[in-house]
Design brief:
mainly alpha, globular, 269 residues, single chain
């Protein structure tokens, strides 16, 4: 039993569970809303149609990925505790960090798999409706593909940052209600962390270093939100994309390293 084996088991658990059904549900919601919009938008207003579809589709994708990150992470770790799978794994010659890293890799693979699936459905839906609205929309559709793919992958990376926080909560808290409540609280604070930076820049008192510390402690989901840029066809530069990926990956690695050091002497069963 090693890290990759645990990651594979976690991914198989997602396939056997309701994760892909949840992705399909959010995709169905997006397609339904798209069809409803198509009844009210005239074909001459194709640019507005594109923006509404992209904005609605990516918003639904973002919400779906964060819900998967919260509930699937919670479910897989709590089930291991309840079904006594965790003590059995740790009774083997398996370091604790192998279990944690394997679980995270499986969860991250599930999130990115869901993002790719939803992104594909969004692009197919976009092409289907646009071809019925405008005869020469194919060229325009091709311009959207890299923007939508990049925005989807950025949202998936943000959801992985959320999943790390949920993992920590599952190990340090006993109450399932508090774990879920704190997970959604982390989601909200991560969405608002950019405001903490703005407050820190405007503050002139002792509270400024406190706000700066809070900002660096929380994940900044707004940094990985390219929804508006995608809707208005604003392409991210290569350097911006590299910095965003570096931030997301670095945040995950640093949080995991700190957590594993704390976990080294803690009973996690």
């Amino acid at each position: 039993m090693n890290i990759l084996s645990i990651a594979r088991m976690t991914l198989l658990e997602a396939w056997r569970g309701k994760v892909l059904w949840l992705t399909a549900f959010f995709a169905f919601v997006m397609v339904t809303l798209t069809y409803a919009l198509s009844e009210y938008i005239h074909s001459s207003d194709i640019a507005t149609y594109y923006k509404l579809l992209i904005d609605g589709g990516l918003s639904t994708l973002s919400m779906g990925l964060f819900i998967i990150a919260i509930f699937f992470t919670f479910q897989t770790i709590i089930n291991d505790k309840k079904q006594k799978t965790l003590p059995v794994l740790l009774s083997m010659p398996l370091p604790r960090h192998s279990y944690v890293l394997g679980k995270f890799l499986g969860i991250a693979a599930t999130i990115f798999e869901s993002a790719i699936l939803f992104c594909g459905i969004l692009l197919v839906t976009l092409g289907f409706f646009i071809h019925h609205q405008l005869e020469h929309a194919h060229g325009n559709l091709q311009a959207w593909i890299p923007l939508v793919v990049w925005a989807s992958l950025a949202f998936a990376l943000a959801a992985c940052m959320q999943a790390v926080g949920v993992m920590i909560l599952c190990f340090v808290m006993e109450s399932e209600f508090l774990i879920l409540f704190s997970s959604f609280g982390l989601w909200g604070l991560g969405a608002l962390s950019h405001d903490f930076r703005q407050l820190a820049e405007d503050a002139q008192t002792w509270i400024q270093p406190v706000l700066i510390g809070v900002y660096h402690l929380l994940p900044d989901f707004s940094t990985l939100n390219f929804l508006s840029d995608t809707a208005y066809q604003v392409s991210a530069s290569s350097s911006e994309m590299a910095l965003v990926c570096l931030y997301g990956v670095s945040y995950v690695l640093v949080v995991l390293m700190v957590f594993l050091m704390i976990l080294a002497k803690k009973d996690i069963t």
